[in-house]
Amino acid sequence: INMRVATVIVAVLLGVANATEWWESGNYYQIYPRSFRDSDGDGIGDLNGVTEKLQYLKDIGFTATWLSPIFKSPMVDFGYDIADFYQIHPEYGTMEDFERMIARAKEVGIRIILDFVPNHSSDQNEWFTKSVDSDPVYKDYYIWHDGKVNAETGEREPPSNWNSEFRYSAWEWNEVRQQYYLHQFATAQPDLNYRNPAVVAEMKNVITYWLGKGVSGFRIDAIPYLFEVDLDRYNQYPDEPLSNDTSCPDPDDHCYTQHIYTQDQPETYDMIYQWRELVDEYHTQHGGDPRLLMTEAYTSFDNIIRFYGDGTRNGSQIPFNFDFLSNINNASKASDYVEHIEKWMNAMPAGVYANWVLGNHDNKRVASRFGVQRIDLINILLQTLPGHAVTYNGEELGMTDVYISWEDTVDPSACNSDPEHYYERSRDPARTPYQWDASSMAGFTSADHTWLPVSDEYKTNNALQQLRAPQSHLQIFKTLVRVRQEPSFRAGELKIQAVGDNIILYSRQKAGSDLYVIVLNLGDSNQAIDLTQYFSLGAQAEVITSSLQSQYINGDIVQTAAFNANANVGTVLVGI
């Protein structure tokens, strides 16, 4: 073919040659429990619903599932505002339901990972109530400050210009205590004070408690916000500099300032390393399998990599690769994909695994962002790169965003906006009920209502229909998960390049094992490719799987010198 060949070529051996522990080269599935399966007919998903569907996840082949928060909560931010870190939220079930879920997960052979939300609690948490009352034990559990008095007006003002992620000041006045408290998210989510050793000890107790209940690890939420800069010698907090971003002219928006004092403070990394030491120590003392930490941090690339460890101390085994999620989109060219894949692989410390994630409960769905026609291509990519793959519930079906009206919107990030701008801020469209079958309410509930609307597409796009179909997004996904177990995918070399603007070519091979070649065509037109120009392939190769709209089906034999890369199609081939 006569196409410009991008020069980006990378060949990287995995830092760990052979996977031995349960979590290595894992396949992780995020469940949003409120929308996964409702077992008791109240229109809200619950733990018994998760328990009921664990076999489904095992049949697909997932290693583990992490559950978005299930702890007792007023649900201002749908579980990310925790009133009691040691109790199950009543809408989701009881502690007995949780223990039953853990037991069933052990039976079917799938691990449970909990969402740990350490940055803040609910304002209805007993700790906060006691802190408001200046209880000596809890007085400094949160960030409190007198604020400042405006020299011109004599009015009391917040201590600094810090803004919340959900808009407006991050400081809220409390009449009882006569001070401001810090909340980097909703006003109902006061930030905990990690400069207080008692808070550090308390949150370690939370981790140990749930390890004792049988969980296999934690996904740690909103890490960049754990620490703020310390008070200066005048007992004040500094204002953050303005971002001067022309796309963010509203002083109430989070993006109006640069968050140099409220995010990514140096102490943050030490805290992650302490938590890793805690779970490792628990493993040493109690036996069983090693426990896993996943970390969520929308931060710079270098900061994400630091969560792996500092060369002396270990950190998170899976610092979520949000460099990939944040920089790859529907307009990305082949070279963009390759650049960000190469960037991560080359920056990893020795002895760790890469991870690939493009969807979660905080972003619009993959099929909506990249196009439904590309959902299989994206899943092929995520499942065939080295290391861990992370899938948000519904992406294996190609579920799409559901339009949620302003009247039906419940996400606080959107509710703090207005009818004109709410949708771009809303996370509700990706949080709608899972589409199980074509029955009423997509088989999610027996109720006649759901907490968020069910997609109009559920009758034609659901798990049961895709399981019964000879070829479907889910069938392709299951094939990918199976082939991931092959030695060349678990521990094989990656050689990757971009060909022109639209073609991504890469191979996976472990010495002495099969050579797999993956062809991804991001473009809207077919392209003929001589694969023997790029790989040591024979005259023919076998199709392992290909996108739903592909001309190829599993088991087809193709001529490698004249391979037809269909538009928006991914294909996995094995040399024969």
Automatic annotation (TrEMBL):
The keyword Secreted does not apply. Residues 30-431 form the Glycosyl hydrolase family 13 catalytic domain. It comes from the Eukaryota. InterPro entries: GH, GH13_cat_dom, O16G_dom_2. It catalyses: Hydrolysis of terminal, non-reducing (1->4)-linked alpha-D-glucose residues with release of alpha-D-glucose. The keyword Glycoprotein applies. One of its GO terms (biological process) is carbohydrate metabolic process. Residues 1-19 form the signal peptide. One of its GO terms (molecular function) is alpha-1,4-glucosidase activity. Its EC number is 3.2.1.20. SUPFAM superfamilies: (Trans)glycosidases. Keywords: Glycoprotein, Glycosidase, Hydrolase, Signal. It is an enzyme of class 3 (hydrolase). CDD domains: AmyAc_maltase. Belongs to the glycosyl hydrolase 13 family. This is alpha-glucosidase. It comes from Drosophila rubida.
